[in-house]
Design goal:
By secondary structure, this protein is mostly beta strands. It is built from 1 helix and 5 strands; from the N terminus they run H-E-E-E-E-E. It has one domain: SH3 type barrels (Roll). The protein has a 5-stranded antiparallel sheet with strand order 4-3-2-1-5, with no helix packed on it.
Length: 147
C-alpha cells in the first residue's frame, strides 16, 4: 500500500492537541484507568528518557524512582488512554535516549540539567542565557528610632 495513503488514514486518529515535550523533560502523564465499570485518572510522573516511532506508532518512555526502585513505563503519544501530558520542568539533553540514567542511584537518577531560558530584548537580539530570572532585591529592615 502507498505510504501517503496510510498516513492520510492514520491522520484522522491523531491527537487533536499534540503534547509538546522532549527527551529530558520531567512530565506528569495522566492516564485513564478502567476498574470494573468505573474510570479514573492515574498520574505517572518522571523523566522522559526516550521517544521512538513516527505517526500513530510514536511512543515515549518515562522513568521514575519509586521506593528506591527504578520504574519505567512506555506510553503511546496518540493513545486515547493518555488524557494529557504536563511538562513540569524542561530538561536539556544532549542525546536522543537517556538510558544512562538507569545506572545512576539517588538524586542523580532523576536529574537532567535544566534548560536555560533566553530573554529577547527590545532590539530583537537574544540576551545571554540566564538559568533563572533575577530575584527581586530584599528590602532592608527599617532602623528603629531611639527614644
Amino acid at each position: 500500500m502507498n505510504q501517503a495513503l496510510l498516513d492520510k488514514i492514520e491522520s484522522e486518529q491523531f491527537r487533536k492537541e499534540p503534547a509538546i515535550f522532549a527527551v529530558g523533560d520531567s512530565v506528569r502523564v495522566h492516564t485513564k484507568v478502567v476498574e470494573g465499570d468505573k474510570e479514573r485518572i492515574q498520574i505517572f510522573s518522571g523523566v522522559v528518557i526516550g521517544r521512538r516511532g513516527r505517526g500513530l506508532n510514536e511512543m515515549f518512555t518515562v522513568r521514575r524512582i519509586s521506593y528506591g526502585e527504578g520504574v519505567e513505563r512506555v506510553f503511546p503519544v496518540h493513545s486515547p488512554r493518555v488524557e494529557k501530558v504536563e511538562v513540569e520542568r524542561k530538561g536539556r539533553a544532549r542525546r536522543a535516549k537517556l538510558t544512562y540514567l538507569r545506572k545512576r542511584l539517588g538524586k542523580g537518577a532523576t536529574l537532567v540539567k535544566e534548560k536555560e531560558t533566553r530573554f529577547v530584548g527590545k532590539s530583537g537580539h537574544a540576551a545571554p542565557a540566564v538559568p533563572h530570572a533575577p530575584a527581586a532585591p530584599k528590602p532592608e529592615p527599617a532602623a528603629e528610632a531611639a527614644p
